[in-house]
Amino acid sequence: MKLGYLQDVYENSGPFVTVYLDTSGDDQDASKEIELRWRSAREQLSRNGAEEHDLRAIENVVGEHGWRAGQRGQVLVAAGGEVVFRDELPEAPEEFADDELARVGPLPHLMPYLRLRSARLPYVLALVDQTGADLHVVDAGRHSGSTTVEGDGSPIHKSSRAGEGSEKHHHDVVEEQWLRNAKQIADEIDKQALRVGAETIVLAGDVQMRKMVHDHVRKGLQDSVHATEASHRDRNASEETLQREVSETVRSAVRERVNATVEEFDRELGQHDRAVNGWAETVGALQRGQVRTLLRSRQEVGEPPETLWTGPEPNQIATERRTLTELGVAEPESVSADAAVVRALVGTDAELVLIDPERSRLTAGIGSVLRYSDSGGGN
User: Fold this and answer.
1) For bias kind Basic and acidic residues, which ranges apply (predicted)?
2) Angle in degrees, CA 270, 346, 14, rounded to 5
3) Which CATH architecture has domain 272-370?
4) Is this model's pTM higher than 0.85 or not?
């Protein structure tokens, strides 16, 4: 899970107010119930030192949803009198501990949100035919956009009406046109995929054009391309069927990435090379900017630390205060351990993979695959 879409959150100065709300409901009493839940959370946040301007900012957007009814929730983060992050939860935060539902601190409390939501891979969906393509682009923050590639529209189809010589010439002209259009589509896919860091590219539409486009997508992206038979560029094509297949393709890609990461972690750990295990070694690796992918258990196991020490910079993170003072941090702060870890991951461009406890040999529910090997240990 890439976390770059959270970068803007950490551009703000704390304290941060984080609240998780059950905003479920599709009946007439829903708004009243949501208001009561918010009132309770507001009182708790106020007791914990939340600024009134932050509470008012959150209050203005409580219960605003862009999708789905029924069981759902919201995560809202405010700082400096503004909501600096908001997202919808796929279910109500019913299993959260009371101290996770409403929190005030030097950093936003986002690990519960990351654990609850499904992993989101940024992707590009391209519906292609001989004349061009419709591209739908979704980034890791679930923000989407669309663009259209219009190729050379004439002639489109091969013909058998002409004589043998002219027929071959016509076929050659058409295939050259298709090839030019395929290259133009592939170039736009490359551009959009690089823009959002797409980890999956889904091709739908005409079978022959799908293959031609696939062949011309840049080499570094070709392994990420998946084809679906679900749709074509006809506006009357089934959106429901297409979306179902796209969702399954993305879920499959997520499973493959998790499996590959777990296998890599276990292998590197066995070789005592590019992997570390447990809190002390992982925090030390985060401090050095070594972590490429952090593995975290979806449920708490062992005895993780409640807090870590942090400085102003994302990689200023340690298990002991003196480690940071020795590095020149004047006033280290004690913060929630997971909050410190998430900021370090975002600030060092590392990825997060959440796994079930039985999937790997994590010590106390945490470990990391490293960018490079280093003999340094934890701190």
Assistant:
1) 229-244
2) 135
3) 2-Layer Sandwich (3.30)
4) no
The highest-level CATH class for domain 123-256 is alpha beta
pLDDT in tens, the chain (379 residues): 888 889 999 999 989 999 999 988 766 667 888 899 999 999 999 999 999 999 999 999 998 876 556 678 999 999 999 999 999 888 888 888 888 899 999 999 999 999 887 666 789 999 998 889 999 998 876 677 899 998 776 555 544 454 455 666 556 677 888 899 999 999 999 999 998 888 889 999 889 999 999 999 998 898 889 888 765 555 555 677 788 888 888 888 888 888 999 999 999 998 878 999 999 999 999 999 999 999 999 887 778 899 999 999 999 999 999 999 999 999 999 999 999 999 999 999 999 999 988 887 889 999 999 999 865 444 5
Verify cis geometry, omega within 30 degrees of 0, for the bond prior to 93: no
DSSP 218: -
What are the extents of the domains in the chain? 4-116, 123-256, 272-370
Contact 298, 357 (CB under 8 A): yes
CA 301, 303, 306, 312 torsion-angle sign: negative
